[in-house]
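Revision sheet: structure tokens.
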Amino acid sequence: MAYVTTQRAAAPSFFEALANPMASLRLALQRRRVYDQTLRELAALSDRDLADLGLHRSLIRSVAREAAYGK
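Predicted:
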């Protein structure tokens, strides 16, 4: 004997529809704060300190971007 069931995904509620973009915005703001903080902290280091970390001043932005966004 065979059984067939069908299920439909329920449409998101009004509050769920508002929560998803808000969560995305919150995540974007958190990532931007990590980027800005990393950028500030690395920029405050001397060239010698950066060299000890294996970084050149020209790499600060890419390191901050990777720390925040993983790219």
